[in-house]
Amino acid sequence: MTDIIILAAGKGTRMNSDLPKVLVPLKEKPMINYLLDSISKSNIKTKPIIVVSPDNHEQIQGALKEYDVRFALQDRQLGTGHAVHSARDEVSPKAEKVLVLYGDHPFLSSESIDDFINKDVEALNLMSVKVDDFSDWRKAFYHWGRLVRDEDNKLEKIVEFKDASEEEKQITEVNPAMFIFNSSWLWENISNLNNDNKQEEYYLTDLVSAAFKQGKEIKTTQIDSKEAMGINSIEELEIAKKLNLDT
Q1: Which stretches of 69-205 are DSSP H helices?
Q2: Closest CA to 112 of 207, 43, 19, 175
Q3: The domain containing residue 47 runs over which residues?
Q4: 5 CB neighbour count, 10 Å cutoff
Q5: Is residue 202 part of a domain?
Q6: CA nearest neighbour of 81 among 198, 210, 208, 203
Q7: Quick one: which of 184, 214, 26 has its CA closest to 105?
Q8: 246 belongs to a structural domain
Q9: What is the tens place of the pLDDT at every residue in 13-61?
Q10: How far apart are CA 75 and CA 176, in angstroms?
Q11: Has residue 238 got a pLDDT over 90?
């Protein structure tokens, strides 16, 4: 059994919108609706858990009445790790895996979801994107976290852009923030996250280095860059409008 957590607490400030970010329309449809439609077409039959904030929960709940979802409240904006932890009480004790997605990724397909969840998960696995460069529309990926591998090509850690060195910023394999966790491992380790970074936030991505240090196998599934497209700004929204939503 797999439970799904969708992070949706962000505001639409960077898109000059008073709406919660996930409700900002893409081709006249809230961007989170595309993701929920893909989930409904996948083989996952549990109700997604939408993580919202106190500021936007009523608005998002009202907008998603047509979907069979649950809600968890993130009482403070303390980072992605804190957001996932906020959903813990909503995750079924029977769930063997926990899939974590973001509500601002409208292009993720049901086929990619099914392929991803069918792999064995020792601690965590993640989707990744490899680009040739950050020119043209691919500049949307430039500020994403970088996947840092060791000399044996094993994933060692993810470095968020604001914490990355100039050398790490040259890495062209980036993190679209789509994870699947072994449920038991997740809850045993998420409380150990710290906020010792420039943002002073609890990064979900720090669980990658935790798994690496424990000697756990971390599998990455590369997906097409267009399918991984996230929307965090007006510029990225304009890029997304030019992409095929059936990707």
Answers
A1: 80-86, 110-117, 183-189
A2: 43
A3: 2-241
A4: 26
A5: yes
A6: 203
A7: 26
A8: no
A9: 666 778 888 999 998 899 999 999 999 999 999 999 999 988 889 999 9
A10: 25
A11: no
- Give me the pLDDT at residue 4, please: 97
Residue 138 has pLDDT above 80, yes or no: yes
Tell me how long the chain is.
247
Describe the crossing of helices 110-117 and 31-41 by its angle, rounded to 10 degrees: 60
Beta strands in the chain (DSSP E): 2-7, 25-26, 29-30, 49-52, 70-73, 97-102, 124-130, 146-149, 155-159, 173-174, 179-182, 220-222
Class of residue 62 by CB neighbours under 10 A (exposed 0-12, middle 13-18, buried 19+): exposed
Alpha helices in 64-205 (DSSP H): 80-86, 110-117, 183-189
Distances (CA, A) of 164 to 14, 104, 145, 146, 171: 22, 23, 8, 8, 10
Residue 231 CA to residue 106 CA, distance in Å, equals 8
Does residue 74 belong to any structural domain of this protein? yes
CATH of the domain at 79: 3.90.550.10
Which residues form the catalytic set? 14
* C-alpha to C-alpha distance for 150 and 197, rounded to whole angstroms: 22
Is 247 contained in some domain? Answer: no
Cα–Cα distance between 138 and 210 in angstroms, integer?
30
| Mean pLDDT confidence for 1-8 | 95
Q: What is residue 247's predicted lDDT score, i.e. its pLDDT?
A: 39
The number of domains in the chain is 1
